[in-house]
Amino acid sequence: MRLNFKKLILTMAVAGIVSACSHINDNSPDKMVRTGVQQMILKDNRLNFSGSFQGEYHINPNTNNEDEISSDTSEINKTNETHNNLLNTASKSLPQTEADDDDDDDESKPKNSLAPFFEQFSQSFSVPFTGAIDIRKGQMEIIPEVRYENKNVLVSFKFPTYIDFKNLSLYTDVSAITHLLDKIPHTRMVIGDKYLQLAVLKSQIKNMPLSDLLKSLPKSIDDGYAAIDRDAFKKVNVDEYGKTLKAKYQVNLNVDYALMQKIDNTMLESLSKALKEAADKADQNSKYKPEDYAALQNIIDEFTSTFNSYFFDEHDSDDSGVFKNPYFGVIKQFKNNQNPIQYNYYFDLKGRIIGIREQLAFPKEVESIDGTVKIDTKIHLKYTTNPKFTMQPPTPQNSINIMSRPELN
């Protein structure tokens, strides 16, 4: 009797696993991603994570060879032939300045004399990171490590950072550099081991319905994904990185900079719409008044307008202020660019996202870079009921609010 009972339990367990796997396999690739993202935000929203940010800089050779691409980029090409052609185009050499007739040798020289330096530096530079998230409490911790490693050299700086979403506060431990800066004569302020705090004044957010804004985020994020063509999602075999995560399924999402702009706008518009609907339902007896929602909606709308205007729209040369900075000119060159960006989503048997990888190449139009820049970001998610935060909880006693200290501004 006991043996039969064990068999029954085992059979039910196996049936449950098979049923779960069958349910996941029945989902379309886009639904797998959208469901996984919502599950991560609304249900399995306590986790630790680790990952790395790796950049590559390659000098553009004086050739039209389209085959010289990194192995990481070739993974993108295997999943989407259209994006393959686009990425190969991005790997072509940038237009070279015409050399003088009497100096043909200059044609083979990189336009930027610092290009070899940047190429060598990128091969040794990386930013590994770890962290924790507790969405229910509105808390996040991330500890990036700026790392340079090569023969006989190892340089490492860590900047533990804590974010309190409910109070719009960010705390950073910058003791990696302040332990030296504090010793410089005539230093305006000694930081010591205290956190640097960047926070919106409570008087400014007292009447802002931030809780309603946070509640609207999951739907706004899903609206952003819904703006993507379903054909952009492809279910593929688990790649080598996914195997290190022990992933069971993998979905690749191929987009470009122009589509990313559309996704961002869709999410911001969804947030604005949610605030407007909340304002319509509110009255003078509600915790937040209609004018409170309207004020926050205006902030979202103004941010959307500024985001599109200064980063993606054309302006005349008389622009002044920070947006006249040449770096903003570089950012504008990303507008409507069709260079592929690939996101890989890795799933476990429960349909949870356990890893994300982003691979992209800078547009060839960004000529000031004078080379090919590729970025590879990997994130491994580990779900838990008790995420591990390593930083000491921020308090007024162990923090310095730089927003209220004029000597630091």
From TrEMBL:
Biased composition (Polar residues): 83-96
Keywords: Signal
Annotated spans, Disordered: 83-113, 386-409
Signal peptide segment: 1-20
Domain of life (superkingdom): Bacteria
Record has Transcription regulation as a keyword: no
Biased composition (Acidic residues): 98-107
Record protein name field: Lipoprotein
UniProt organism field: Snodgrassella alvi
Highest classification ranks of the organism: Bacteria, Pseudomonadati, Pseudomonadota, Betaproteobacteria, Neisseriales
